Amino acid sequence: MKEKGHTLVEMMFVLLILGLCFCIGLPGLKAYSSQSQILGAASVFKQEFLKARSIATSSGRQTAIRFETENGVPMISVYQDGGCNGVLSSEISRGLDHRISGPRRLQAGAPTVRIAIHPNIPNPPPESGYLDTSDPIRFGRSEMVSFTPLGGATPGTLYLAGEYGVQAAIRVTGNTNRLRLLIYRFGKWREQ
After folding, report:
1. Domains held by the chain: number
2. What is the pLDDT of residues 126-149, one digit of tens each?
3. Which residues contact 25 (CB under 8 A, 6 or more apart)?
4. pTM to 2 decimals?
């Protein structure tokens, strides 16, 4: 048998094709990586919510996660009702509702994920219009999500922003106390 090798032109052509395939697939790979980081960060927050709900049901007292800022750094603390009327900001400041954990830094757990909203992101269905980028923590005026011993919760949403326009919304429903994770990618919201 007669053996033949490949010419330099053929090898360069193959390398060019491989390079083009890599360049075409790279943005999708980066977006997929960003989505997995945001899913990991969302699960960290989801665990915090589940822990606070568990404390409320096991102790028989309303428990709340309060989003705070200390020297410009986002923090969370967990408070428990001391006056049998729910966790209130005014009672926290007076020392009636006491802190049971925190404050600790509110971290997403991934370096590229932050608590924010990308510009020009539409509201998750069924709402219309676009999200307001100025408020990524939406649990009422006090920025607290409260859990009752009977399983109810303050309704609201926490927004996480990742690279390449990937956006996440962690939604807490009121009466059912259900946590939903929605991901916005490629122009559409999807539940995870």
Report:
1. 1
2. 888 999 898 888 887 778 888 888
3. none
4. 0.73
